[in-house]
Structures are given as C-alpha cells and as structure tokens.
C-alpha cells in the first residue's frame, strides 16, 4: 500500500468509526443488555447460554474490533424470508423499516405465528443498549420481513426475494442488500436441473443473478442460505403425510458410518452460485450435530445445539408466554418458559439449527457491508472467504471402510479433512472455507478500495463418458475434460447423468487441473429406493477450488462403495417403520455424461 493510499485508508477508518461509534469501548459487548452475557456467538467466554454445559471460550464470530469501532450494520437492510416477523417486538421495532409484506393478506405486517422468523430477525439485528434481551450481530442494521413459508407461491418467492411489485430497480436506501433464507428442502430423490423441466428454478436463478449483480447501482446484494439440518436423518412427504427417513447401516438405526445422510448438495436451492450456503457450529467450535454439509458450503457460523445439555442461541421470541418457542413444553434451558431475566417470555434460549447459522452469517455480511458500503456483493463474499477461520483444525474428515467386490476390506477417504487448495484457501466439506471471522473481514473491507473484476460465467461444457461404474470398487468410473477458459475460480458447478439403481452407494468426486480433489456428493446418502434410477441433469456445486485457475484438465470420478445389504428406514409416528434400499444393484451403474460451468473472474 503506497503512502497516499495509507492516508486515505486511515481517513476512511476514522470517518467510519466516528459516524458509527456511540458506545463506550470500555463496556464489553456482552454486558450492554440483560441477556447478552449468555450470547456466546457474539463473545464466547465459556458461558452456558442457560443450558447445562459451557462452550469453549473464543469460539464465536470474532467481532470485538467491529463492535469497539461502532461498525454494526448501519445503513444496511436485511430481508428476513421466513415464517414472518413480529415487527412490533420491543427489541426489533426500532430497526424495522418500510418494506415488509404479509404475503397472505397483502398488508405490511408479516404476521409470525411460529416464532422462527422473529428469532432469526433477532439474531441479525435485535437492538443494542435498550436494556431489553440481547442484541443482534448487526444491531444497527435495518430489518424487513416476509411470511413466505406460509405462502410459497412463485409470486410470493419473487416479492420476498427482491423483485418488487412494480418491477422497479432495487436501489433505495432501505431496500435490502442482504436476504436471509433460513429454510430449505430435503428431496428424497435427485433433482433434475434441466431448466426446461423446471422453469421455476430458472426464473429464480435469473432473479437472484440480477439482484446480486445489478441492484443498488451495481453494488448488488447477497443471498444467505442455511445448509439444512439433515446430517443424521431427514423428513419427506409421501401422499401428503410426513415421514422420517433414517439410515440403517449394518442393522443399526442412525448408523451412517459418520457420513451425512442428506448431503447439502442434494437440494437444488443449495446448488445455486447466488446462494451463500452456511453450515452450523456449536459452542465448542465443532460441527453442530444436525448440520447438513457438503462441497457447496461456503462458510460456517454459530448455530448451537438444542439449549438443554449444550448451548443453543439466545435471541428474540414472540412476545408473551403463550406464544412462540416458550410454549414448547418442559425444557432444561433455564431461560425457557419465563425467568427473572425474562418474566414475560419475550426471548428464548433454544433457537438453533442452520436456521441460526444463516442469520448470524447474514448479520456478519451486513456488518462488513456497513464498514465499506461502496464494495460490491461479490467483493464482500471474497473478503469473508479470505478471512475465514480454520475451525476445528484437527477434524480429519470421514473414512469409509467397506468390503470390495473381491471380498477385500478397503478404506475410502469419503470426506477429506482440511485441505489447502492450490490458491492457498483452506476447505472442509463440514465448514466450507471456514468460520465467519467478522473482525478480519471488516478490517480488510476498510482498506479495500477496488471491487473484484467483473464476474464471468462459462457456458456448460459437456463430455460424453459412458463408463461403467464397477460395483464396490475404489477404481470407480473416471472421465476427463479439458477446459480452455482461464478464470480465477469463485465456484464450480457440476452436472451429471448417471444410471444406477442404488444411489446411496455412490460417491462423486471432481478433481481440478491443480490436483485439488472435491467430494461433491458423499456416499451413503438417504435416497429412497422407490425414487431411484439415477441422476438426470443433476447439478452440484463446489467451493473447494476457490481462487484456483480453471484452465486445464478436470476429472470426474464416480465410485460404488457397497455390494451388500444397506438399508434405509422410513418412520411414521402412527404407522411405524418401513425398510427400503435393502438389495444391491444387480447391474453396474454407468456414468453417461457430465458437464462443468465455471464462475470466476
């Protein structure tokens, strides 16, 4: 940095801090409101979050510098796309700006009868210093809300995700620059990614692309997306009834040999480049027990456990002891159901899930944006990626042992531990590029004057393969294609067509020209046998190659990891258990063809 740039940077820092600071640096950020002392995700001192055990000190969002400088989301609006938001809540109302919508009755009050969306809003931007509850990650940010989960039409999706009713440009000061999506889907079969088969998905992609790149005079917006809560099991609907789907490896319920049962790359919403997908950390700085994971995870953020034996999140609840999360029955959490600190039950200590990790990341995004509002959305993403913290550094991933077709026991590196790619970025399928690190990202934002070069997106490049996938064999089916485009990679999408009758056996890997290996679909996924036949134009996403160069030979490898009986259970509370996926595929599968699309600059 030259002399003039240093002077300019210091001037920007001083001006930003002067404009934002209104709290005493000597006052700890977790001592300003009655419940902040238990909000471990803001500053983890080893507190319990009103649960029965403590977390590990230091495992938090790392926002002390931003807090002391008064950089807390001012001027950035976050849209909460959820069950609605109680916008009149005493700890939210002063941060609410015009723009909310009740998608059922058309009014401006997005009624929340559940409490989920209200809790999400509190994590993002609950007010600070009002002697009520806790605070949000970005307590000066603006909030708007939508009850999209109660009215999930395509029209409601477009309105809640930034496309205004009059189709005007999203460029007003109070228009959202951050969209939080603490919701998801758990398909029981691979999703067809052909736009002709699903025009809705193509429309959603177009809307998110336009708003990400072109809104706010070209500065754009960021869509934050929760990865999902289906590491161990998931739910699906059959003939309108809800069923639980569980692994049954080696005759043991919930045994999936340490692998995710529903990979985050299964949901088409999570395979969009425009969604910043977030997995969940607990207060010990490890993967939360429920969190979905995959190569499409961009970052990880605090989400907590269940608030009983281990801390969840302390955040806003619907007002009153007869509504929201406080009426969920007896609970070990000492804040639950009313306490001396919260006699009116306006707050909760049991909010969790990637539904919490998402808004914590969204609050971080708003904070970084407020540090330097001139930066565009992709540059903010890049700052978060380049400052992410290598959390749980000793995590070695998952090794899958299985009996090969020849009867030999073999070991497969089913999910690698932390890897450093050729561009120097760390990556883990559990944590993406790492844990959100607010202070380092804010500091970089203050001294970043130029946004990333213009985004380039290649056309899909296809390769016919027609390679047999040998049963229970580490050799797998491989195919290589050469990519001429020489981009600095921001993300890679893979599209596959594979014939196979028991997809839970398969693992899919992609290796870059630099030799970085990404497991884009892990083995032992919980697809249901009645829905299987293979992958048809199924899209997956990887951030494993972030910063690498795209030019050169790319290799796909598809492995079959099971020749035996590998069952999946379906459970209904009134109908009991049903087994599926019991028999091995009678014929080897085939990797028919595959395609790549590169996002980069």
From TrEMBL:
<dbReference type="GO" id="GO:0004252">
    <property type="term" value="F:serine-type endopeptidase activity"/>
</dbReference>
<keyword id="KW-0645">Protease</keyword>
<feature type="domain" description="P/Homo B">
    <location>
        <begin position="458"/>
        <end position="601"/>
    </location>
</feature>
<dbReference type="GO" id="GO:0012505">
    <property type="term" value="C:endomembrane system"/>
</dbReference>
<feature type="active site" description="Charge relay system">
    <location>
        <position position="355"/>
    </location>
</feature>
<dbReference type="InterPro" id="IPR034182">
    <property type="entry name" value="Kexin/furin"/>
</dbReference>
<dbReference type="GO" id="GO:0016485">
    <property type="term" value="P:protein processing"/>
</dbReference>
<keyword id="KW-0720">Serine protease</keyword>
<feature type="signal peptide">
    <location>
        <begin position="1"/>
        <end position="21"/>
    </location>
</feature>
<dbReference type="GO" id="GO:0005737">
    <property type="term" value="C:cytoplasm"/>
</dbReference>
<dbReference type="InterPro" id="IPR002884">
    <property type="entry name" value="P_dom"/>
</dbReference>
<feature type="active site" description="Charge relay system">
    <location>
        <position position="116"/>
    </location>
</feature>
<dbReference type="InterPro" id="IPR000209">
    <property type="entry name" value="Peptidase_S8/S53_dom"/>
</dbReference>
<dbReference type="InterPro" id="IPR015500">
    <property type="entry name" value="Peptidase_S8_subtilisin-rel"/>
</dbReference>
<keyword id="KW-0378">Hydrolase</keyword>
<dbReference type="GO" id="GO:0016020">
    <property type="term" value="C:membrane"/>
</dbReference>
<comment type="similarity">
    <text>Belongs to the peptidase S8 family. Furin subfamily.</text>
</comment>
<protein>
    <submittedName>
        <fullName>S8 family serine peptidase</fullName>
    </submittedName>
</protein>
<keyword id="KW-0732">Signal</keyword>
<feature type="active site" description="Charge relay system">
    <location>
        <position position="82"/>
    </location>
</feature>
<dbReference type="Pfam" id="PF00082">
    <property type="entry name" value="Peptidase_S8"/>
</dbReference>
<dbReference type="InterPro" id="IPR023828">
    <property type="entry name" value="Peptidase_S8_Ser-AS"/>
</dbReference>
<dbReference type="InterPro" id="IPR022398">
    <property type="entry name" value="Peptidase_S8_His-AS"/>
</dbReference>
<dbReference type="InterPro" id="IPR008979">
    <property type="entry name" value="Galactose-bd-like_sf"/>
</dbReference>
<dbReference type="InterPro" id="IPR036852">
    <property type="entry name" value="Peptidase_S8/S53_dom_sf"/>
</dbReference>
<keyword id="KW-0106">Calcium</keyword>
<dbReference type="Pfam" id="PF01483">
    <property type="entry name" value="P_proprotein"/>
</dbReference>
<dbReference type="InterPro" id="IPR023827">
    <property type="entry name" value="Peptidase_S8_Asp-AS"/>
</dbReference>
